[in-house]
Amino acid sequence: MIAGLCDIALVDPAETPGRFPQLEFDTLPYIFPNAEVGVQVYWDILQKYGGNIELKDVKVLGAATIAPSNYAGNKPAQKITISRA
To answer: 24-34, pLDDT tens digit by residue?
Structure first.
């Protein structure tokens, strides 16, 4: 539902699970190798599919994703190591 007036807003589909089901795929762990690839894929999908149904009443100006940050191991993390690629 679109109501009221807003010039610009930042919306995270993950904050409202189920409201934008076609746009929530970017929260899956390790789906993108890095944020740059993630936002390129996300933008392409927004342009091809998202605007047709879930965002048809708004104008999308941009998108953002974060680098994979989920830990998927079988041992507790003891320390954090940051690698620079």
So the answer is: 776 676 677 77
